[in-house]
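Narrative progress, year one. The postdoctoral researcher (J.K.) led the effort to move from monomer predictions toward full complexes, under supervision of the PI. The following entry was the first complex the group processed end to end, covering 610 residues in total.
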Amino acid sequence: MNIGIDMGGTSAKVALVNDRNRIVDVTSVPTGLKSSPPELAKRLAAAVKKLAGRHVRRIGVGVAGDIDSHHGIVRISPNLGWKRVPLKMLLQRATGNSVAVENDANVAAWGIYKTETPSSVKSLIAITLGTGVGGGIVIDGQLHRGATGSAGEIGHMVLDPKGRLCNCGMRGCLETCAGGTHLSAIACEALKKGAKSRLQKIYKANPQAITPKVLTEAARAGDRLAQSLWENAGRALGRAVGDLIYVINPERIVFTGGVAQAGSLLFKPLQLELSRRPFKTPIRVVSIAVAKNPAHIGVLGAALL
Amino acid sequence: MNIGIDMGGTSAKVALVNDRNRIVDVTSVPTGLKSSPPELAKRLAAAVKKLAGRHVRRIGVGVAGDIDSHHGIVRISPNLGWKRVPLKMLLQRATGNSVAVENDANVAAWGIYKTETPSSVKSLIAITLGTGVGGGIVIDGQLHRGATGSAGEIGHMVLDPKGRLCNCGMRGCLETCAGGTHLSAIACEALKKGAKSRLQKIYKANPQAITPKVLTEAARAGDRLAQSLWENAGRALGRAVGDLIYVINPERIVFTGGVAQAGSLLFKPLQLELSRRPFKTPIRVVSIAVAKNPAHIGVLGAALL
């Protein structure tokens, strides 16, 4: 039995995973900016003990941010408000188990690779479309971490230097075109300007209700504003994916995260962009899919690190 | 002793390389669109025999184009006018030696990795700035070929969908911003429109004399047109390199090819672009260099395949 931990900004999901890669039991631990890392490590250790008693082999943790997975140090995690936290050491001390710490997008890629991918496939790129956009890369059956564990930072590829301002400070990152927060903001800006849309009513009642899910429903119901928004997001994503295919030439690309649930609204324009690329060999070979088990891929991937 | 062959559109360079990775002897064989692949294989075999007698272990060949290195098949090589040529088989039959065939940019990356890179470095991206722009990637000390041997197609990353028309049919590929042919064309277009520049005289005498080398000399001598051209090329290259660093997180990036000889004209704006990137961890770790032995890296890399 292994433990997978998916550290979020408000809570950590802790799952007990058996040797068949099935989740046996799951619990959650509050995180938040107020808890110190050693305190949180103790709370996590208590949750692990409650879940599994002494039958734990390994603990894997996925954390959003800049992670030194080699030393198990969280260099920066804006969600948790952490800088230079030796999470691996803290958790090993608190639990007595061996611990691996990894960037959450890498964890998702590893989970998808180990639990949803035919064993004949040796390379994939997993793209997490959540509030932001992340990526993880598997090459030759190994997680490609890069020189500093920073590889796969797909969301901040610059698609348009004159584009929208990204949280990172640059303009026109992929995340500003296909991240959930930006998609909502783009829609709200258009609605504020009076764009004709069935979303106006929802927007006027509560702008925060303009979520990617609501945008998906509106587009499926025929709303033009929502449709053109997904069209633009899919095309931008298609451009970035086209570049990634040219550079990495993977066998598979798998999307996960809430925004990926828009399905064909996003993937039809994406495929159209890909079909325009003239070098067909790498485009034809790649299969594009959506993760089957997005809700649990974080803890599963972490447990399998 | 190994043989390295660098197949160009007009001639193939054939080199005998010793076990210390030094070129012992070199010759050339005409290629061109008129010779059939079996004929050319025979001519290459004769050159190999003349160079080395029977003392050859392996032959490696670098070919520009879409190469199936697994089977040693040239899928498409526009330079040679080839489609689906089983070059490995033809050369093995003609020489009796074991033969490896690889894309020329991959060969350059391998040559740089094996002959110019400290053994502590395990990952690099080699970017060939010639008439076009190519790339080769080494990860964990291995050439990263990708699912179909197409990886590293850096020159056709799309930087601006509304940009210059590329030979490939897309617009705004990196190659249209930093490839030699396009740099010359951009300069000629400005000169045709009457741009104030010391290059006007050369252009009026012979537009084909506006080469990247001439543009480098003009910029170094203070010509504003040439300087702004290199500035733009360097910034575009910096954007693409920034994306590559975020995605692959390599230890080293090495430039080779004629256009790379522009030196700081190109690399100063490139570094400026990189310094703007907010995620410092992968940017700080990467060292950027120019190949020391660009003239021979093709045959050296091929001999070491």
